[in-house]
Amino acid sequence: MDKLLIEGGTRLEGAIDVGGSKNAALPILFGTILLDGPMTFTNVPNLRDIHTTLTLLGILGCPCAYDSRVVRAAPGQLKAEAPYDLVRTMRASVLCLGPLLARIGEARVALPGGCAIGARPVDQHLKGLEKMGAHFELESGYILGRCNGLKGAHITFDMPTVGGTENLLMAATLAEGETVLENCAREPEVVDLAEFLRHCGARIEGHGSSTITVQGVSSLRGSSYAVMPDRIEAGTFLAAAAITGGDLLVRGCPYDELEAVILKLQGMGMRIEQTPEGVRAVCDGPLNGTDVKTQPYPGFPTDMQAQIMAVMALARGASMVEERIFENRFMHVLELVRLGADIRVSGRTAMIRGVERLTGAPVMASDLRASASLVLAGLAAHGVTEVQRIYHLDRGYERIEDKLNAVGARIRRVKD
Ligand code: UD1
Question: 337 phi and psi, to 5 degrees?
């Protein structure tokens, strides 16, 4: 297993590039199941979760080839079973459920695993698909779904769920008649999925708002589509500029989609501005503490909570973080404390008192974004921080050490 050795204390300066969005690419790739013809995707990041998805698509009857961020997919004879060994490593595998039911009326999908950041049920996915005519049974750890063609329905989610909205949106494209989805997730990744589906002939309106209307069509054609940039990777780089007192030009950073994060960092004292080449983030003085509450888009993203907490650990004064999306997403706290941070957790709230310095130590990555926060803390800590179990990091960040080293970081990847 690989680990990262980070020698902290250097200021990051220069230009850094944002790759394609993992969370947009995953549902879009599963959307291939809906298509009649071959499809080409560009700007697909080279990440473990992406390769897991491509392997799974191959097993489901959609062979895919990956080369230099381009995926060529060729839907063939579809099969219904998504096996446990793949699904357990990636929760997003459940996104094949809607497309398989829409296309072949059958799906056998292992109950998902993925990041251990809460209970993360899939009841909203199943309830919505049931309203469209599917029946489900649980059998030896598998969700077994069947339908005799999906029918349009009026579905109101109990909470805005990103994966739930995506699964239902995909299912509705080939259902008979009109589907109205209410209380939808408004995340940019949902919008990117809808744009891709429209590109292939789907009739979708309202994506990006909380009500999405879909008129079912009889088939979707293959085409080509470029995946949107990764706003969370971009936000992590802004946080890297913040924590190292740096000056970074983040090329390809989607400014509008990151506004909630940018406003917070500006409120802490950073200068962040849009330029023709990208978003420039400059930190030339100590930052001040702030309060953050995670919320569905357009609120502050839960996927940036751990990273901003690392920045808060070294900011002046007190900060507060309230995690409203996932109940168990403070696993980075104890590791940050090992580096010298002063953080106390009570329920869904963390109180952070800024300290003068962090000191390098061995720490353990527990989930994807927690890993990113430990890398950020390591960049600022005195001495060497050893981040273990970085396979989580590799699920969501492409060559993060190479990208950061190119702007002045000192990170080495070593085998344990
Ligand atoms: C997606 C993102 C993840 C991000 C999260 C919230 C991907 C691959 N992952 O995850 O990085 O942190 O959105 O922005 O895009 N819920 C239920 N029942 C359901 C579905 C969800 O109770 O059927 C709850 C969840 O437990 C959670 C909340 O709804 O508390 C939001 O979850 P959801 O938006 O579905 O997250 P994911 O799609 O799993």
Answer: -65, -35
Residue nearest to atom 20 of ligand 1 (CA): 122
> Where do the domains of the chain lie, and which CATH numbers do they carry?
2-19+230-415 (3.65.10.10), 22-226 (3.65.10.10)
Looking at the predicted structure, is the pLDDT value of residue 116 above 70? no
pLDDT score of 88:
83
User: Which residue's alpha carbon is nearest to atom 21 within ligand 1?
Assistant: 161
Q: Rounded CA gap, 90 and 87, in Å?
A: 5
Distance 33 CA to ligand 1 centre (A): 22
Q: What is the pLDDT of residue 138?
A: 87
How far is CA 119 from each of CA 29, 255, 383, rounded to the nearest angstrom? 25, 32, 36
Say if pTM beats, i.e. exceeds, 0.90: yes
Looking at ligand 1, which atom is closest to the CA of residue 123?
A: 23
Residue nearest to atom 38 of ligand 1 (CA): 163
For residue 264, the model assigns a pLDDT of 98
User: For the chain, what is the total number of helices (H) and then of strands (E)?
Assistant: 14, 24
Q: In 368-380, which positions are buried (b, 16+ CB within 10 angstroms) versus exposed (e)?
A: bbbbbbbbbbbbb
Name the residue of 89, 90, 120, 329 to mutate for ligand 1: max ligand atoms within 8 A of Cβ. 120
Q: What is the pLDDT of residues 7-59, one digit of tens each?
A: 999 999 999 999 999 999 999 999 999 999 999 999 999 999 999 999 999 99
What's the pLDDT at 89? 82
CA torsion angle 48 52 57 62 (round to 10): 50
Contact 278, 251 (CB under 8 A): yes
- As given in the structure block, the two tokens for residue 318 are 């007190």
Residues serving a catalytic function are: 115
Residue type, 333: V
DSSP-derived secondary structure letter, 300? B
